[in-house]
Amino acid sequence: MRREYNNIRHNHIVIAEYDQAWIDSFQREVICLQRLMGDLLVQAHHIGSTSVPGLAAKPVVDLLLEVTDVKKLDDLQATSISHGYQFWGEYGLAGRRYLTKGTDPRTHNIHSYTSGDSELKRHLAFRDYLRAHPDVAADYVSLKRRLAAECNHDIDKYCDGKDAFIKHYQQLALEYVSSQS
User: Exposed e or buried b for every residue in 141-153, given b needs 16+ CB within 10 A?
Assistant: First the structure.
């Protein structure tokens, strides 16, 4: 699947050093999303590399939203666009609604699922695993930097190169979360 956002092919893959401002960006975006979604929004989580203290990342803040009913977000498509979001629907993952914000550069990725969806647990487990295992987080940064240098700014190649690492550690993360319960 080609990864095109706002009809712009991103020409640069930049891995930036960790920036505390990513936390503020997440918090400001949650306020905007609360205004947009109202009672549909149950909880918002900061995920992705920008949510892991000290981890270098592409400077795009990822949000994971728990909503009462993900299908009801479809009714907010026009309103979300007027609030600066691009609405992508499921975008390849059943049960998800995906939005982005910012065009060049893109600033936020927003993944929404109905409360209780197993994808919520998977995303949060991976984030928490990286936070709890700095050695794995360091390996992840090394991989991202290597891929950014080797992929000639091909976002598909970059994402595909991370896939095996992410899937491996997501599985370990889910096992880790289960063992902590």
Answer: beebeebbeebee
Tell me which residue has tokens 């063992």. 179
pLDDT digits (tens, 9 = 90+) for 93-147: 999 999 999 987 899 999 999 999 999 999 999 999 999 999 999 999 999 999 9
Domain of residue 103, residue span = 21-180
Q: Which of these, 166, 64, 42, 54, lies nearest to 120 by C-alpha position?
A: 64
The amino acid occupying position 153 is H
Distance of CA 3 to the CA centre of its chain: 14
CATH code where residue 114 lies: 3.30.460.10
- Residue 6 resides in a domain: no
Provide the number of structural domains found in the chain: 1
- Predicted TM-score (pTM) above 0.85: yes
Q: Residue 146 and residue 113: Cα distance in Å, rounded?
A: 32
